[in-house]
Write a structure and sequence with these properties.
By secondary structure, this protein is α/β, with parallel strands linked by helices. 28% of the residues lie in helices and 17% in strands. The chain has a single domain (15-140), classed as Ribosomal Protein L13p, Chain: A.
């Protein structure tokens, strides 16, 4: 009887991917990023291990959302004190912290445990077209259905 193959930590090859978020729909972009972070695009994918790649997202402020989400989608945060609930619409959050919009969407698609927190550290999001990761030689990831 054969045994299940489990990759060793040093066997996992990590790539750096560069994704241009300009004109991309938020949810579809987040699913692609989550798949790359988890390593589901690789043949050595193992659910309980970090087999994924690093992802760099540029032009985070230029994402698109469908419908009336800009004004109707609300992000809540709580300070922990009575009356400390704060609410911001997607439009407000995109104006101040567009990186957090993408990070929040991706967090919703990865495990909520130690592994998920480790995966989220491999996600680098930047507002404009510049990023400090040129030394890692990231490859441009082409998203399906992109219209240029």
């Amino acid at each position: 009887m054969g045994k299940t193959y489990i990759p060793k930590a040093d066997e996992i090859e990590r790539k750096w991917w560069l994704i241009n978020a300009e004109g991309q729909i938020l949810g579809r972009l987040a699913t692609t990023i989550a798949r790359l972070l988890r390593g589901k695009n690789k043949s050595k994918f193992t659910p309980f291990m970090d087999t994924g790649d690093f992802v760099i997202v540029i032009n985070a402020e230029k994402i698109k959302v469908t419908g009336r989400k800009l004004d109707e989608k609300i992000y809540y945060s709580h300070s922990g004190y009575p009356g400390g609930l704060k609410a911001k619409t997607l439009r407000e959050l995109l104006a101040k912290k567009p990186e957090e919009v993408i990070r929040h969407a991706v967090w919703g698609m990865i495990p909520k445990n130690r592994l998920g927190r480790k995966l989220l550290k491999k996600l680098k999001i930047y507002r404009g077209p510049n990023h400090p990761h040129e030394a890692q030689k990231p490859q441009l990831y082409e998203l399906a259905g992109r219209k240029n």
